[in-house]
Amino acid sequence: MLNLLRDRWIPVRCLDGSRKVITPAEITLDYGSNPVICLDEPRPDFNGAMIQFLIGIIQTTAPPKSEREWLSMVKDPPTVSILAEALKSFIPAFDLDGRGPRFMQDLELQDGNATSIDKLLLETPGENTVKLNRDLFIKRDTVKAMCPSCAATALYTLQTYAPGKGSGHRKCLRGGGPITTIVTGRTLWEQVWFNVLSEREFLRPGYLASSNNADKFPWLAPTHTSEGDTPIGPNDVHASQVYFGMPERIRLDPDTIKTTSCDICAAQNVSCYTSFFLKKHGVNYQGDVPWGHPLTPYRTNEKEHKTFAVHTDSDGILYRHWLGIMQGISSNDMHVEPARVVQVFRDRKMLHESDLPEGDVRIWSFGYKVDNSKAECWYEAEMPFILVSAAIRELYEMQIAQLIQTADYAQIQLKKFGKMGMYRRPENVKGDFGFFGTLFWQETEAAFYTALSELAKNLSESADTQAVKLSWLRSLTRASLAIYDQYAQSDTIAEGDPKRIVVNRRKLEYALSPRKDAVRKLLQLPEINEDDMAVVAQPGVISPR
Question: What does the pLDDT read at residue 388?
């Protein structure tokens, strides 16, 4: 019987490239010689779920009592034995199977719909999709068995990201499709510890200050079911339940275990789960007070006084989201606030820059794109963690917003003139031309982060930033024209017209010129002289006259 705190079940990679399976306490194993550097799950969404599991475990069982204690453990991580001792009293709550409480499973559920094990995976087609034979991209019956390790991870992933599939099935406490943002470091310990808050910061007003473990780990008590739509808010449970919410009523079925190979990790000749019980009306995480998950940015509608988690959209997680994820952004009546862990780490880094380890601190962002309660795609991205002083932060954020708004304008022009270059009557052509935008954001990402660093440097030195903006515009222009050429001049376009292609290419180029009023307004540029034009003009790019 697998116990998630006592047994080795978490696949990881070490500094030397070797792969191990560890317990949660062993995240600091061989820290001085060959530390664990990252998770190594068989699926990317499992990696995303497992880092949240580890953060939640350490936050709940061994949080720092002060900022000074947090800082000391960055420099000198606790040993495996110290972490094991901290977890010891919680071991009985983390059995995956058995007669008593089971990890992330309904305590009293003895029946319900017998469901094949693949339904633990969010992308698995639902019953109606299968019935109508519409499972075109992700086929049914591809996962028939899961080893205990994969079943535990799939179970946690489902409960953490539950999109509320069907009537009576509740969503996770952040709603369907939330973005998760993790501050990363050089090792798995730093990935976890950089996102653990002090007790005072974590147990904020509005959460129940309870010593009852069932308020932290809801599977230890009968499920607070929601047949009558009775909600649970953050003032009803311990703050730790943000990491261990149970919107779905699930219980793995041990009677259908069989010895076979795992269809997720390919482990051979292991005891695998093949089905589970599922019932509607799990916990309804609503309440009068908004839930504030520490790992998720939140959007507030100031006019309507509503706050909700930022969700993944159809374009994925792109650099245009960086400002909201890292710094925060306000526009009209909407304000986006970075995840609490990002804000706290930003403050810690400002105060203790010399005491924190050297290395590339980044933001790891990920989540499911959910549409109509269906998980459509998993997105993830890494972004640089760029820190600026409070003295220039407002100006820095304003100028980053200018870069992003200009990029958005550029990709709109690319779509417009790209379609006009490809077709004689573009208004009659149906179909999705989103590939222009997708390629554009990908091709300009590296240039954006270079521009961020240069902006920070220039502003901190009170230097002018016009050259940075013009260089950014040059990058947008070059990428747009390259993508235009790739599609408008494609041999597959049956109605290709060389004159039309050249004319619309010139129109696109002029639309992105610094002489264009719209561009100057977006970037807050003055009138451009010939010397400035040289910054934008490049070989193969026609300088508009």
Answer: 87
Q: Are strands 113-116 and 275-279 parallel, antiparallel or unpaired?
A: antiparallel
Instruction: Fill in the DSSP letter of residue 128.
Output: H
pLDDT, average across residues 473-491: 88
- Using an 8 Å Cβ cutoff, are 287 and 232 in contact? yes
59-68, 204-213, 326-335, range with the lowest pLDDT = 204-213
Neighbours of 377 (CB within 10 A): 14
Q: If residue 484 lies in a helix (H) or strand (E), which one and from where to where?
A: helix 466-488
Place of tokens 């709550």: 93
Average pLDDT, stretch 383-394?
89
Taking Cα atoms as reference points, which of 357, 360, 352, 350 lies closest to residue 385?
360
What tokens does 337 get?
């606030």
pLDDT at residue 130 greater than cutoff 80: no
Nearest to 404 by CA among 339, 451, 369, 464: 451
Q: What is the Cα gyration radius of the chain?
A: 26
Identity of the residue numbered 131? K
Between 129 and 12, whose confidence is greater?
12
Q: How far is Cα of residue 241 from the mean position of the Cα atoms in its chain?
A: 19
| Whether the predicted pLDDT of 526 surpasses 60 | yes
- Rounded to an integer, the average pLDDT of 33-62 is 97
CA distances from 495 to 27, 480, 504 (A): 60, 22, 15
Structure tokens at 125: 């087609």
397 closest CA partner among 300, 449, 330, 476: 330
Torsion of CA 139, 142, 143, 144, to 10 degrees: 120
Phi, psi of 99 (to 5 degrees): -80, -30
